[in-house]
User: What shape does this take?
Amino acid sequence: MIQLDYKSSVPICDQIVNGIIRLKALGILKNGSQLPSVRQLAMQLSVNPNTIQKAYGILETNGIVCSVKGKGSFVSDDTAAEQAVLDRAKANFLEAVAKARELGLTTDQLTELVQQSKEGVDAK
Amino acid sequence: MIQLDYKSSVPICDQIVNGIIRLKALGILKNGSQLPSVRQLAMQLSVNPNTIQKAYGILETNGIVCSVKGKGSFVSDDTAAEQAVLDRAKANFLEAVAKARELGLTTDQLTELVQQSKEGVDAK
DNA sequence: AAACTGTACTAATTGAAATAGTACACTTGT
DNA sequence: ACAAGTGTACTATTTCAATTAGTACAGTTT
Assistant: This one.
């Protein structure tokens, strides 16, 4: 379900956080559904349980999941958190736009690239 | 001229590489002009000369600068390299678009964000 | 010759990330 | 009550990339 790149410079912990946010945004993880336990997911992804714990902790801090001692971790249905994810996505995207501009890409070029990638999504 | 973030997880070496590419794209560094020497820039940015050397080496490998033993390092006017920088910028931007889409942003929203940031640039 | 360039090493240091291991508190089902 | 599952909280250790430190060599310019 989550694809890890162990060689990447992006910490595994962050990859897991992003992966779960992504799965939720895509609707694959339904609100309120239960996530694999810390130990289970650690086995599944072949990483240390501490790494999963850290990832779940970050997600909980951001209101994206909700962990209950003794019961498990669940996908939160906090709409404020969903909005926060959207806001962060926008902010990240704007950063990318700024970087692309600095390297010489124009507004028209950027707009065209966005449209082109839409066609790719539609084609799928 | 180059702004470094020493706390960033992005290696200083990479920041310097990106900074020079950026300055060249913005036209601040003219083609053929001389760059600060390895030791000079190291002093200026308060980093180790080796770090500058590494950055210059990467830039040279990519045809963006040209270093001559005993003379100095110069901004290259290799058009192929400039195209390569543009291509890379496009690829990076497309990645950012894909990530934003995964987090729930639509094509219309992305297009709007690009337009908005254009206004910001114009206003400046 | 002196003073500047880039280049090429090795060694040491630093810091973040991940692992290993253990322990504790809580819930559920038997 | 008990066992087996949950999340949580630590400390110690390991690993690895990035950076620093130091030195040396080769070329150019004056």
